[in-house]
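Checklist before submission:
- one chain only
- standard amino acids only
- sequence pasted in full

Submission:
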Amino acid sequence: VQLQASGGGLVQAGESLRLSCAASGFTFDGYAVGWVRQAPGKGREGVVCISSSDGLTYYGDSVKGRFTLSSDNTKNTLYLQMNNLKPEDTAVYYCAVDSQCVGLAKERVTVRGQGTQVTVSS
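Returned file contents:
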């Protein structure tokens, strides 16, 4: 049971990246799924989550209108399209699943991927 995140990199402010998160050994059905990030010296921050209870997608205020979460159930993969990136988006991005969205940023989460580094230069 694991999540494999990829797609991070170094970009300039205003550019875009697409992160992928492939699940193996399980499916996303019944879980809250999404992305969290952790910048140097800071705690984990929820970025986006698809709720297990209502199926709606919730975005953090700092990424609304710029980031879009999608999924391909045939590939059991999540995608995070990040547009108009800003230097403050610099962080390690983790995909995660848990019973509820509020659990994604916690230390003890059902499954968390290994993280992918996103660096945005000004």
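Reviewer check: The longest strand covers residues 17-24.
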